[in-house]
Amino acid sequence: MIRSHLSRREAAKLVLAAAALSTGPLGRAEAQSLQDVWVTVIGAGIAGLGAARALADLGAKVTVLEAKPHIGGRLLTDYSLGAPFEIGAGWIHGPNGGNPVMDLAEAVGADLFVTDDDNLVVYDAAGDRVSDADLTDLDERYWEMLEEIDETLEMTDRRSLDAALKDITPSTARDPLIRWALTAFTEFSTGGPIEKLSASYYDEDDVYPGADVVLTGGYDKILAPLAAGLDIRFSTKATLVEYEQGDGAYIYADGPDGEQRFEADYVVCTAPLGALKAGQIGFDPPLPRGHRSRIEDLPMGDVTKVALKFERAFWPTDVQYFGFMTEEKGKWPYVLNYRTFTDQNILVALSFGNYAGVAEAKSDAEIWAEIKAVMQTAWDGVEDPTQMIVTRWSRDPDTLGAYSYTGVGITPDDYDDLREPVEDVVFFAGEHTYFDFHGTTHGAYMTGLWAAEAIVETADG
Ligand SMILES: Cc1cc2nc3c(=O)[nH]c(=O)nc-3n(C[C@H](O)[C@H](O)[C@H](O)COP(=O)(O)OP(=O)(O)OC[C@H]3O[C@@H](n4cnc5c(N)ncnc54)[C@H](O)[C@@H]3O)c2cc1C
Questions:
Q1: In this predicted model, what pLDDT tens digit does every residue of 104-121 receive, in sequence order?
Q2: In angstroms, rounded to a whole number, what is the distance separating the alpha carbons of residues 95 and 98?
């Protein structure tokens, strides 16, 4: 095993990414150089790249292993439609108040467009437009209902959100417009089905202020400075981490040339929760019981997006979002209109909760037939798309889900304790390791920076 001969040079020259400088203690002038420290980072999503960038800039010898042939993980942009389509993360949620992903966006001069949640038209199951008065009323009733749940429940309550709503606000919970809002808003933002969300904790996470923004030139552009110059081994999937306190680790991986073995003093593992749950990476010795049970217990949710490009727009082009009160919950209830921020005739239909996984099992043709039927309730002249992209995150073997959610029985510690270093060698990071901002790019990024910071502290003795 590689032994660390840690350099303790004072006032090491730091060339951290702009956001790292503004976010964590790593940016402090006294940070140590890691010149003789070897680190293997598993995963080149925003968490892994954040950790790798910070450590490499401190002088560490960093190797990033990435199962895919590209960086980004769940921050991935497709440019084939003539306007960037975000396969994974679409928005910077809460761009103000120090959101570190905004620093990354500013560093690359990204063009931002503020999406307007209120620029919304909702159609009922028959395709009739819900009146503005009813939508205003919905807004009030929806938040009142959720507040009542918050006020009524003890934090130890083990009911699902759906069960609590049915018990505490039965008539409101049955209202079709409220049911629509529960999938279009709650299931979308949490990634989990209301039947499985913890009623007491599902909304206890944190938010940065400000209306959400999209990056009209492509979200993945923010990653380039993080990845620049890093040693990234693409199409290389870690399979086993053998580790020992004070002695570092061997990391085994399947790569383009067969099995490879890497040596490191420290390992940052940012493989998604879904991949960890499926046991795709073995650990020898096995992870401590706390880590194992948290990985087992934390649930991974799903969101399915379908980008549809048309010859011409047959919908009101100035409306940002369309809501469809489809009979089956989560079945294409929400549509984003790209015409409000690009010149392309693109609609993105979304599916949430339990239905997202159901949808992913279908063929593209079946999915379009469903979406077409929904759109035809409201619009005349619905045409077949000229191009179509369907995301299937729960079927992606390297991710197995969209993002983690707070299921029944889960508490914030279940996320945060995952960041506890294992034998001071293995450090977990990723969206699923930070309760306050789980399921977001900024949350994932921060955990990567913290893993780097924890390695600096460990290496420093
Ligand atoms: C559909 C969808 C919509 C979203 N919308 C938003 C949004 O609007 N705003 C927002 O802030 N967030 C959103 N998110 C969440 C956000 O994308 C994630 O929280 C964040 O990108 C996760 O980053 P990460 O680095 O933790 O994981 P990932 O980005 O998943 O990176 C992990 C990497 O590890 C790799 N990997 C897996 N197994 C191995 C292995 N064995 N060996 C080597 N590499 C491996 C994977 O290929 C992947 O590249 C969305 C996510 C999805 C899926």
A1: 999 999 999 999 999 999
A2: 8
